[in-house]
Amino acid sequence: MDSQTAVATQTADDASVTGRLKPNSLGVLGILFFVLSAQAPLTGIAGAVPIAIAIGNGAGAPATYLAAGVIVLLFSVGFVAMGRHVVDAGAFYTYIGKGLGRSAGSGSAAVALFAYCAVQACMYGLYGSIVSGVVERHTGTHVAWWVWALVTMAVVQVLGASGIEMGARILAVFVLAEFSILIVFALVTLFKGGGPEGLGLADSFAPSAALQGAPGVALMFAVASMFGFEATAIYGEEAREPHRTVPRATYLSVAVVTGFFAFTSWMLVSAHGPSRATAEAGQALESGDAAAFVFAPIAAQFGGWVDDVLPVLLATSLFAGLLAFHNSANRYLFSLGREGLLPHRLTALNRRHSPWAAGTVQTAIAVLLVTPFAVLGKDPVLTLFSWFSGVAVLGIMLLYFLTSVSVIVFFRRSGADTRPWNTLIAPALGALGIAGAIWLIVANFTTLIGGDRTTALWLQATVPAVLILGVVTARLTRPRAAATHETESAC
Predict the structure, then answer these.
(1) CA 36, 89, 363, 473: dihedral to nearest 10 degrees?
(2) Residue 83 CB: number of other CB atoms within 10 A?
(3) Of residues 289 and 35, more confidently modeled
(4) pTM of the predicted structure, to 2 decimals
(5) Is residue 305 part of a domain?
(6) Residue 161, H or E segment
């Protein structure tokens, strides 16, 4: 009898361990590196900035990044306020569920998981293409993009299972490398007084400059470049003193990302010259190598060796993003398993307290998403990257909007926090800004994905379809979820 009691006690202890991620594993800087990795700074600069300048508002694009940062900052105020009362690896869907109900929360969980998996899949397409080109350029050996993608999936799976601390260390190296070369370029350009036409401060930040051309298109790409900061809350369960760490990491992430994109894009415009930047960005797009708009002035500043280094840094930038989104997605799967909305086996942790089962499923999803494009011989950049990045941006922006509304409803109903700015004014302003961004994304979705109108409509339809699927799943699994909560409470 004593041995049976001991076994039962040990089993209960194991269950309690498998239900929680490893606490006190990440500080502010560790979370910050995950956020910056998810945003893949070099990829955002080399991919989005030339488009925002060429078909957006030209030299006024840097001001658009500031505007996007203000919208995200307003959203963050309510996001942080909610985070002080809710700490869970599910983040978005947990927050939305607290304010708008379990069905809305489950629907948003499906959208979040879909968006994170989609953005990771699209990054595999671009990553595979870039690595294939770099290897062929230096060795003369051509290896298909999808081979590199599959090999990297295995590496990401291993690193994801190695513990959150290991991932943070690796990401820190890659993020610092890509940040360093861009910031050094921007600072050198600033201290030299800018490019052929000077710094061009008014040309980039004056209201008339910001509103020229198609500022809505530029804002769309600016917002698309900045999402990923919400991962601060996803790691709350693994953070040291989450009620302090998560808010600090969130605000620091928004400030760093906004300042980085605005400053670097300004220096790029200055390096080309405000009067010539739009035309030269357009030429880069027409040539099929948008990154040339970014790489050329950096090479002119530091020498030809940059042309060999930057493609490698672009690949490592994408690799860091792949690892970051893998960690975000598997924590969503873990949290959904813990809630009873998905099989409970997804809550299994290894000795490093990493959700290895959820990570394995997430890697399998990545394989399933990438394989059809490889089998059908589709261009990984023009289809896989373009299509899935558009869907991911639309899905994440919908979650931002629902979270802002949920924050208002939650605090009006609970009275847990009565500060008007934090729980009503800022979330409402953020929701209005995000709603405007969503409208711009939908109106310009064909441009965002670089495809045709029919493809755009089908891709847009996937987001509400996934939302509805999540709501239906929640209603069907309600009894099982309730039973899971009762079991956990008993433990």
Answers:
(1) -130
(2) 23
(3) 289
(4) 0.83
(5) no
(6) helix 145-161
